[in-house]
């Protein structure tokens, strides 16, 4: 997803929300809470599955995952819009930080937090 794709999505969401007069409900606090709720709904799909089952979802469950991921992205883009955060720029900066925190030679194949290296 490129920068123009995110801008296009942001603009479509702005229109969708404006047409319904929902902007009044989209305070950053509310959007952050909605984002967590949707992430929880995604997690619920995987609850009680084995690791193998989670990798090989039936078509119906995969479709539910896709819809929950869409909800998550919608709220994430709305929240970023409300806070004037350029998501692609933020991700690029975070990856640069993580490259420093997690040097390949020290973490390859290890699931450790940077302060445990």
Q: How would you explain this protein's 3D organization?
A:
Helices cover 72% and strands 0% of the residues. The protein has helices at residues 3-19, 28-46, 51-55, 59-82, 87-101, 104-107. The protein has 6 helices and no strands. The protein is mainly alpha-helical and 117 residues long. Helix 1 packs across helix 4 and helix 2 (28-46) packs antiparallel against helix 4.
Q: Give the structural class.
A: mainly alpha
Largest sheet: none
H/E order of the elements?
Answer: HHHHHH
Give the radius of gyration. Answer: 18 Å
Number of strands: 0
CA-based shape: globular
Estimate what percentage of residues fall within beta strands.
Answer: under 5%
Helix content: over 70%
Q: Could you name the ranges where pLDDT drops below 50 across 5 or more consecutive residues?
A: none
Give the count of helical stretches. Answer: 6
Could you outline the blueprint of secondary structure elements for this entry?
Blueprint: H1 3-19, H2 28-46, H3 51-55, H4 59-82, H5 87-101, H6 104-107
Short structural description:
The protein is mainly α and 117 residues long.
Describe the structure using short key phrases:
about 120 residues; mainly alpha; 6 helices
